[in-house]
Amino acid sequence: MIIYLKSKCEDILLKKPKTKRSKRFLENRAPKLAEDVKTAMIMKGGNTNQTVTQALKDIVSSLMMHSVRQTSKKNITRPFEDSTSLEFFSKKTDCSLFLFGSHNKKRPNNLVFGRLFDFHVLDMIEVGIEKYVSLSDIKNSKCPEGTKPMLVFAGEAFDSDIEYKRLKSLLIDFFRGPTVSAVRLAGLEHVLHFTAVEGKIYMRSYRCLLKKSGCRTPRIELEEIGPSFDLVLRRTHMASDDLYKLAHRQPKALKPKKKKNISHDAFGTKFGRVHMQKQDLSKLQTRKMKGLRKRRGPVDTEDKDTQAPKVAKVES
């Protein structure tokens, strides 16, 4: 297993910035505790057709907010054979995701979703477009640009198959958008639905319509807005388990500190345990009632116990 890390030679060759602009540039590229939003690099291969070109445009314009387009020129590269050009452009544009489109006789209408770790390819999955409906073909009103989508994954393969699990993780990285603390109800209007059935992946895009229901909770209807894809899984390049675990490592400063005597259940309800000293319940102040008042004179318990019980006479 090869783990790509920075060597000492690279650190020696790095020079100190001479201008404030270059200093700001290096500080922006430096590792941070709270990383920036992941940016995707969109590339076209040496041979493409109208379907692949339009699919890349629709994905960028409607689904991905943070992307860098490299579609003005054709990039004669093959990601599964040689990924050096992808790593070079990712380091140049500071992108951790890439989407590569190509078309040839052996693999028509081809898309490659991939991500990088430390500017080296971590994993990538190749899918083929069997059926495609563009944005312009569906004449419905669209969601505003920049709307954070809700991602829905249906199908047992996304939970059981390793390749589909990685594909699910890749799609979440591509379409999740920025991390926000709160979302208003009217902002939950874009739904991306992925269904895995019989070796195919169906991707649909919907808009949520809030209708009147006669009560406080509105009635929700889904309206397809496009684009829609029927995809089939092709080649995959998976990272090793050790490298995949290394890419998910978090710094200690971001790990939540464990708090004593606090637990959560499966639904996220917070429970706390409070430790107190033993209480004397005889001194506990309660509501005063006439029936609970103490008698004035002291009662001798020993004499009370020795007294013979009274027997009632019964007349025959």
UniProtKB/TrEMBL annotation:
Bias (Basic and acidic residues) ranges: 297-316
GO molecular function, one term: rRNA binding
Gene Ontology cellular component list: nucleolus
Gene Ontology biological process terms from the UniProt entry: maturation of LSU-rRNA from tricistronic rRNA transcript (SSU-rRNA, 5.8S rRNA, LSU-rRNA); ribosomal large subunit assembly
Disordered: annotated segments: 275-316
Family that this chain belongs to: Belongs to the RPF2 family.
Identification of the protein by name: Ribosome production factor 2 homolog
Gene responsible for this protein: rpf2
